[in-house]
Specification:
about 290 residues; alpha/beta; Rossmann fold; 5-stranded parallel β-sheet; 10 strands; about 35% helix; elongated
Length: about 290
């Protein structure tokens, strides 16, 4: 009997120190490309002290995984390619295996399914879904609010911490409250001391408490809860050079105005303009 040919495949490689935003957009973007090209899909998702949870610890997702060491060994014969897809031609399509290694979104062709669509279709695990719904119902439901995401942890990217200092958020939030004293805020912050400082300064600000260790399973699940609650906001003050906050934008259907210290406010802020989310797990649907 003639053996079956090895199926053509695509592996998306994530580095051990890659954060959630980079990992998700690389995996889902590469999956879309694999579907378009008729290739079996697998991905590298390293876990350990630097990043605890598996993809399936966060969302109901059961893709095929490949150990990092296996991918690196395969790279001697099947070298890594990047997100540009400039390497994709007829010759490349004859190769058995493609390996994509990047921290950036893939530049998918127009005919590929947008990876953002798959992100919105993902279902969080019960521990995350329940926490999102409880917090939303108890603190945020029924009124517009502004999402605020602060990245102040020492391991956050230096460009983010330099361009988006805590003082900028405090000043910007004070300006907003001066114009509209009733403004409500939801805060996502990775340093408890900074979170307390902001909440003490703004009584209408709410945030999760006791989020777990940084990049632990509990910690990333808490970050995912923050992600959905940010996506349910009507406007976002966020960090410069952060992929995570853009996940919130995509979850909201790319309808939110996103302001950073580098990208200035368009003027008057109307947190109600985007509408209210009836289901916080589907922030792209608004009333």
């Amino acid at each position: 009997m003639t053996p079956s040919p090895v199926p053509r495949s695509l592996i998306a490689y994530n580095g051990y120190d890659s954060g959630l935003g980079n990992r998700v957009r690389v995996v889902l973007g590469a999956k879309s490309l694999a579907e378009l090209e008729g290739r079996r899909f697998a991905y590298v998702w390293p876990t350990g002290k630097l990043f605890g949870p598996r993809f399936s610890d966060l969302w109901h997702y059961r893709g095929l995984t490949v150990p990092r060491a296996v991918s690196r060994a395969l790279a001697y014969r099947y070298p890594y390619v990047d997100e540009s897809l400039t390497w994709l031609d007829d010759r490349k399509r004859t190769e058995t295996l493609w390996q994509i290694r990047t921290g950036s979104p893939l530049r998918l062709p127009p005919e590929a399914r947008p990876w953002q669509d798959e992100l919105r279709a993902l279902t969080p695990v019960p521990e995350v879904a329940g926490a999102v719904t409880r917090f939303y119902d108890e603190n945020l439901r029924g009124e517009p609010y502004i999402g605020v995401m602060i990245r102040a942890h020492a391991v956050s990217h230096a460009r983010t911490r330099e361009a988006s200092p805590v003082e900028w958020y405090l000043r910007r939030m004070a300006e907003i409250v001066e114009r509209d004293p009733g403004t409500r805020f939801f805060l996502s912050c990775d340093v408890p001391e900074v979170q307390r400082r902001v909440m003490d300064a703004f009584p209408t600000c709410v945030a999760q408490q006791g989020k777990g260790g940084y990049n632990s399973v509990a910690g990333v699940r808490s970050a995912l809860v923050d992600l959905y609650l940010l996506a349910c906001s009507g406007y976002i003050l966020g960090p410069y050079f952060s992929s995570f906050v853009h996940l919130a934008e995509h979850l909201a259907g790319d309808r939110l105005t996103f302001e950073t210290s580098v990208v200035e406010s368009p003027g008057t802020i109307d947190a109600a303009a985007a509408g209210l989310a009836a289901d916080p797990l589907r922030p792209f649907e608004r009333l």
